[in-house]
Each structure stands twice: as structure tokens, then as C-alpha cells.
């Protein structure tokens, strides 16, 4: 039987869950994560399925960026601006045992998110540049005009440019996988230090802290 205090409340109580990630954030997060794992570790590069997984990842990224402008408060870019000072403070708080629950990304996680997004943009753009038809047939887009200019430049300068683009694509993709592993490790480390259930938050949309004495 649980001991209770003078007012009948349990001595060990669980703080109420705080709203965190909305369905759009969770959907785009997991879709991009699965795309990175599939294209980076499982699916053969340059295969048709690799290309279409890339299209799906780009669509999810564009949706997330759009949602970062007009979406819920915690999803907006203004809710997690990168700050070195804030990241240092957050690290010090973690090491000192001072726990704070953030509705959006914490200051350290913010830097990881923007780094991954930046690399994913590089992977996406170079991947499209490597394709002769980066979009479904008959699709009319501004990017096709850019691609035509790139291909014309390439024809005038040999195939060296294409090789450089391929190298950038592969290096950026490897860096995404590397940072993703650090990201996963950091999530579990922070979860242990702070008590905030970060993995559950990106699944359920609610952040729950460790029960307090």
C-alpha cells in the first residue's frame, strides 16, 4: 500500500504529462528516420526504390519546414533558435542534476536538429542533381530548370562536376547516419539524466517527467 501525505496525496507522484509534439512533427520525424535507415543501410543506391524513398523523405522535409513556420508553437522554428550559450547552460544543468522539461527541443538537441536538417538538404539536392529526371514525368517545377542549367554546365566541363556531386552526396549521407547515431545516444543519455521520457514523447506526443519524491 502506498504511503500518503497529510492531504492524502502519494509521496511519490508523477507530474502530469506536458503536450509536446503534434502529429505532423511525429509523422515527419519517423518517416524521415525510416527513410534514412532504408536508404543509408538497406536499399541499394541508385535503385528505383532508393530514388522514390528519397522523394518521400524530401516531401516530409518540406512539410516539416512548412510546419515550422505555420504549425503549433512547439513545432515552430522560433521555439528552438540555436544558441551556444543556452546549450552550455543546459549541459551544466544536466550535469548538476537540475532538470527542466522543454516543450520543444532542448538547447543541445536544437543544434543536432539543425545539423541533421542541413545535411539532409545537401543529400536531397545532390540526389536530385544526380538524376536525369528528378521528378515524376511531366511534373513542372522550378528545380527542373535549375537541373537543366546544371546538366548544360556539366556537358561543357566534362563529367568531373557529376563526380563531385556524387561524392558530396555520399559523404553527406554518411554524416547523416553518424549524427543520427549520436542523436539516438544523446536522447537516451538525456532521458537518463533528466528523467524526461523523450522517446515516449516522439511517439505519444506527450512529455512525462520522472516521478518526484
Q: Could you explain how this protein is built, in words?
A:
- The chain has 213 residues and is an all-alpha fold.
- The chain has a single domain, classed as Transmembrane di-heme cytochromes, Chain C (Fumarate Reductase Cytochrome B subunit).
- It has helices spanning 23-42, 48-70, 84-96, 107-129, 142-156, 160-194, 198-204; strands spanning 18-19, 206-207.
- The protein has a two-stranded antiparallel sheet with strand order 1-2.
- It is elongated.
Topology of this protein?
Layout: E1 18-19, H1 23-42, H2 48-70, H3 84-96, H4 107-129, H5 142-156, H6 160-194, H7 198-204, E2 206-207
Antiparallel strand pairs: 1-2
Helix pairs in contact: 1-2, 2-4, 4-6
The gist of it:
The protein has 213 residues and is an all-alpha fold. It is built from seven helices and two strands, in the order βαααααααβ.
Main attributes of the structure:
213 residues, mainly alpha, Fumarate Reductase Cytochrome B subunit, two-stranded antiparallel ribbon, 7 helices, 64% helix, elongated, disordered N terminus
